[in-house]
Amino acid sequence: MAALQQQQQLQRQLLAQQLLLQQQQAAAAAAAAAAAALAAQPAASAASTSASTQDRKSREIYVGNLAIGVVTSDMLRELFNTILANQVSDPVNAPPVVNVNLDSSAGRFAFIEFRTRELTDAAIQLDKLELCGRPMNIGRPKGYVPPSQQQQILTLTSAVMAAMGGAAPAPGASALASASSLPVSGPTNVVLLEGMVTCGTIRDENERKEILEDVQQEVVKCGPVLGLAVPMPPASVTNAEPSRVYIKYSSAAEADRCRGMMDKRKFDDNVVQALFVTEGEFVRAQGGEWVAKPGLLMQGSAAPAGALPGPPGMGLPGLGAAAVPAAAPAVGGLALPPGFTLPPGFTLAGALPGLGLPK
């Protein structure tokens, strides 16, 4: 009888211990969930702030080389509101320009925020527009990330955080190395055509012009082209290696059509490889740079110096009738982009962006 009572008491003790352990586990889980929710609040707030910043930067342009002491914020607002008035439905109550932030120290530059991304894309095309006798430098603000790349950067950040056990990644060589080796996976608004001809052909000026004409006739079938860039291969690249032709469209959908049309297509005995690249790589190629490895989300340092003499890159905005109608007003021998009008007293100084003509 005593042995039976001891066994029952032991069972009751074990049951009590199990119940206590379950309660402790439930309390620990509740505490962990509360801590995770508390930690998620600043992360969500930071993500919201980042998204808001990127949205503003996607609707903002940088305007430099302004006449110091002459150009005012009201002047810039009136200029861009006048030029882009026919791009909005109600230019009086909802004008294109939302805000103008002029450099308060000297007035050398300004940041102009527009109502939509489309208006910003249109304003970018007015690079080198002359104001008060000086051609303005118009471009994207520092920190701008094209929408097509934002999701890829979020994916990369998540992968780095997961690899570090959920901790926020600190800037370092390992994170940069991961980013620099990550290829552009999703559609962008820029397509790179590799191998249409050899580098030896591109180095010949006459052949180069003929190739550009052939590319023009093909790629405008997919949509209006904002620019072409054909960087000159450096001396370290042999004549037998594939050349590069960059095509920039106004949307990723148009670029996707171009990639589908040109990828694996044969020109003479050459097979074209078409891939998406970032807008940053296009700008570098337009400036004449031969990037070390094209098609990456983040590019490293510039290609080795020693490029052959000649034009660094050709850019031809608005190619074909689909891009610039024949009836578009001409200023200084150049056709304005569709829908643009210039107010009295304003002129285009030199070429439109990337045209590659002397200013």
From TrEMBL:
Keywords: mRNA processing, mRNA splicing, RNA-binding. It comes from the Eukaryota. GO terms for biological process: mRNA processing; RNA splicing. GO terms for molecular function: RNA binding. The keyword RNA-binding applies. The keyword RNA-binding applies. Residues 59-143 form the RRM domain. SUPFAM superfamilies: RNA-binding domain, RBD. Coiled coil: none annotated. InterPro entries: Nucleotide-bd_a/b_plait_sf, RBD_domain_sf, RRM_dom. This is RRM domain-containing protein. It comes from Edaphochlamys debaryana.
